[in-house]
């Protein structure tokens, strides 16, 4: 683990050596809709340090994007509401900050990369304008200086002929190039933490790899924290340090990346891993977790996964499992591993 | 771009010929003899009638008359009104008045229309929004002449806040009420259009991006949201400028503004064929130019639109 790279201009009580950059504690998010309350996030805890990559894995509706939006402070409120929880960024609870304080952090210290760059970029403003805006608003640079910086940034994310293309509009770029522009925008002010919400989902497989490599490289270069939100287990393996698996608004398992692939400690994680197509199983039927993700207005009692779980017992239908510290057979603690399953021992140790 | 404009200009020729021909045929196909009508109740002297008919070329076949009209038009001659005044003279008197009135109305339409639309769109579902929706609906539902006469008699004749009629069209304050009346319906449409457009775009991904970039609210709304939301509104405003200039017949009539609309109204009543055709020709040109400008403006506002 590395130290926080820059001495901050504000006193940071908790941001010493090794202290996490971002720490989410017992976060709850609900949406008040006409049909009732949707419990999107039900007590999420995770943390990211500088230079570290956390992958948040889950199906659609598992709450991985909502958590990210809550961290960024871009949830629509109302209908969204954060009834409980804390989000510490460099030691300060962002949920207690004023709107203006949070705005200043957004984009400069905390940046986000969205899934579909075509719709996430403003169609009627040139990419140079949209990049330059970061410098003009946050650093008060002139239009001209901001433009020069934008060209520099476009070079940095390896957009060919940046100087000639700075005045082009988003629709004039290819999907991969557009995503590079999104990355450049997030990177503009060298933030401490970047949240990438399915950054490669909308791209071709070959382009996906390029974008992930670029992201990983830039992260190393700037020693940033990175939260990578994805449903693609393949993307995660190469770049992430640790993984948090989400289900129905909760983290059901977290683990260092390779441990999770080797020995999942939650039936849901195991189901996900088993459903990856493998070459040595060619011709066999692909495994799929049966059933559907729960309706967040009516999350099943007990463990939310119990209706789909092959190991479910009576206790799973009544008691919500807490995130247990996962240990070896002999009781030795496995650092950074947790599983929210009543039968985690049976799952990991067979 | 240049080629596009050239093509559009060339396309205007058949449109222009088609519309003027229709107007020409309609005016001259009207029942009754306009020359005899010039004599009013008095008996027309057949010799004078013949002389006048010859002077205005009315004794020639209709298509030949149209051809004469077109060839004169190319030389900038719109013909002579039955009142013996050249149509171009009448136009040069009326056009500035109408332009002034249209611009007053247009300014009101832009400021109030977009302003109310923004307010309603940003506060969707709130009281302000409901209020704007109801008021604009009422304005759209009331015919302009009702609104015009009510405004005139209440503000002018009862409360004496303004002159009921416009005496001096150079005085912009006198044009204010006619301007509001003229703008009213378009204003209502502009607010509704702006409101819908804003309410739609405010949910767009790029707005979320702008917020995530830490842009201040006024920048998110003023630049990212408005720049996109105003595209359909500007298109409407452009075509409406043409409509304001030609569509002021009722308003100009009520408030006695001596513009194109009023002149056209009287020309129709007096069956003054050359004058009607001349005025309509002018309006056709205004419409054609306005719609070309709108199409060009569209590309400036939305870079995704390319002209080929």
UniProtKB/TrEMBL annotation, chain A:
It is found in: Cell membrane. It is a peripheral membrane protein. Keywords: ATP-binding, Cell membrane, Membrane, Nucleotide-binding, Transport. CDD domains: ABC_NikE_OppD_transporters. One of its GO terms (molecular function) is ATP binding. PROSITE patterns: ABC_TRANSPORTER_1 (PS00211), ABC_TRANSPORTER_2 (PS50893). Residues 22-273 form the ABC transporter domain. InterPro entries: AAA+_ATPase, ABC_Ni/Peptide_Import, ABC_transporter-like_ATP-bd, ABC_transporter-like_CS, Oligopep_ABC_C, P-loop_NTPase. Pfam families: ABC_tran, oligo_HPY. The keyword Cytoplasm does not apply. Belongs to the ABC transporter superfamily. This is Methionine ABC transporter ATP-binding protein. It comes from Streptomyces varsoviensis. The lineage of its organism: Bacteria, Bacillati, Actinomycetota, Actinomycetes, Kitasatosporales.
From TrEMBL, chain B:
It comes from the Bacteria. The chain crosses the membrane at residues 12-30, 99-119, 131-152, 172-190, 233-255, 275-301. Its main location: membrane. The keyword Transmembrane applies. Residues 95-298 form the ABC transmembrane type-1 domain. Gene3D superfamilies: MetI-like. Pfam families: BPD_transp_1, BPD_transp_1_N. CDD domains: TM_PBP2 (cd06261). InterPro entries: BPD_transp_1_N, MetI-like, MetI-like_sf. Keywords: Cell membrane, Membrane, Transmembrane, Transmembrane helix, Transport. It is found in: Cell membrane. PROSITE patterns: ABC_TM1. It is a multi-pass membrane protein. PANTHER family: DIPEPTIDE TRANSPORT SYSTEM PERMEASE PROTEIN DPPB-RELATED, DIPEPTIDE-TRANSPORT INTEGRAL MEMBRANE PROTEIN ABC TRANSPORTER DPPB-RELATED. Belongs to the binding-protein-dependent transport system permease family. This is ABC transporter permease. It comes from Streptomyces varsoviensis.
